[in-house]
Amino acid sequence: MNFTFNAYYTLIAAVIVLLIGKFLVNKIEFLRKYNIPEPVAGGLVAATISTLVYNFWGYSITTSSELQTSFMLIFFISIGLSANFAKLKEGGKSLFIFLLVVSAFIIIQNFVGISLATALGIDPLIGLIAGSITLTGGHGTAGAWGSILETKYGIEGAMGLGMAAATFGLVMGGIIG
Fold first, then answer.
1. What is the DSSP string of 105-157?
2. CB-based contact 142:123 (threshold 8 Å)
3. CA 33 – CA 124 distance, rounded (Å)
4. Under 8 Å CB-to-CB from 54, ≥6 apart: which residues?
5. 176 to each of 23, 34, 50, how far by Cα in Å?
6. Cα separations (Å) of 113 from 99, 127, 140, 167?
7. Which stretches are transmembrane (predicted)?
8. Residue 167: other Cβ atoms inside 10 A
9. Which of 68, 52, 81, 74 is nearest to 142 (CA)?
10. Looking at the chain, which runs of residues are DSSP E strands?
11. Overall pTM > 0.85
């Protein structure tokens, strides 16, 4: 059996998942210490519950992606609005060196991802999904590129793989520091 949520109920479910994540991060020291974001904490609980319900009772949940593009657009616009070029100039030489190091690591991420995918005999684009698309871009970029890679390039499960890789990168980044 399948439960299908329309856009309204999907939004309500997302808010509930976010509130669960907020509660968990406030109550569990480990999550606070390693800077695990509230949506990730709540999302892992929701994914676990959803998996258990499916495995034990055969019920699956389908959510609407109708509002996804609009909310992602709002999110990324809000990031751009907070840009401050005066602060960027204050960074000076140190910031420029940091930019070069980060750029080098982005190239290394892609090289490792594509090389491993090729060595395993899978599409090199899957290596990019596990590379800078998700590890540098995060969940938003994984979502945007995931749908493009699924529809334009026929890579099945690109969205799911992207979300998994972005979550892995986020959690490992929090643990490593």
1. HHHHHHHHHHHHHHHTTS-HHHHHIIIIIHHTTHHHHHHHHHHHHHHTT--TT
2. no
3. 36
4. 60
5. 24, 8, 29
6. 21, 4, 19, 16
7. 6-25, 37-57, 69-88, 95-119, 125-145, 157-176
8. 20
9. 68
10. 2-4, 60-62
11. no
* CB-CB neighbours of 165 under 10 Å: 21
CB 71 within 8 A of CB 14: no
Length of the chain: 177
Q: How far apart are CA 31 and CA 45, in angstroms?
A: 13
pLDDT tens-digit profile of 119-176? 999 999 999 999 999 998 888 889 888 888 999 999 999 999 999 999 999 888 888 8
Q: At what angle do helices 158-176 and 38-57 cross, to 10 degrees?
A: 130
pLDDT tens-digit series, residues 70-99: 887 777 777 667 677 777 788 888 888 998
The identity of residue 18, as a single letter, is L
What count of other Cβ atoms lies within 10 Å of the Cβ of residue 134? 28
